[in-house]
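Homework help board

Subject: predicted structure for assignment chain

Our instructor gave us this sequence and asked us to write out the predicted structure in token form, then describe one feature. I got the tokens but I'm not sure how to describe them. Can anyone check?
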Amino acid sequence: MKRRTIVRLLLPALVLATAAGAAAQDGEIVLDDEDFEVIEDVEVEDEQGQESGEDSLGPRRRLGRLHPPLVHFGVAWAVLAFPFALARIRWPSLGRADLVVVALSAAGAGASALTGWLHAPDVLSRPGVEPLVELHEKTALASVGLLAAALVLRLVMEKRDSRPVRAAYLVLLALVMGLVLYVGHLGGEITFGEGFLTP
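My token output:
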């Protein structure tokens, strides 16, 4: 079997194995009602005087509530973009795999930023989180901008691949990976409180 064929077979398996390993838990996690904080419980009466609860949410709040699940896809793609770019430069036979990952990462980051912006007013109702939310927003927008620039460079590489363009592409994706992890940490502090990683 040729070396290229082995790499083509092993790389997707490695990615899937890594994702499966990250998802596996040694023990069972049990969550109680006390593990969650009710930010705002809204019950509104409609014209007939009946409580409508969730049905009263406007489109902004409904879309904003998509931020927590959507953000994980954007983070995963952004973290994978740098290793895929390195692999493609090392093994050109991977073709456009990194382009797909960077495009999905940019799309996921854009969707996460939009839903985060829509979700921010609900989060800002909690005391003391405003500086964290502001820093989270600014760093998230910076990561979206860097991802967009990396996507443009990758598209340039389709037409004219050169060493300086490849170097800039890799540097941007390395910065994105670090920045996205920091943005995620800030999101964790907004959700769970400062020092949530320390025992």
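Reply (TA_rk): Your tokens look well-formed. For the description, you could write something like this. Residues 130-159 form the longest helix (30 residues). That's the kind of observation they're looking for.
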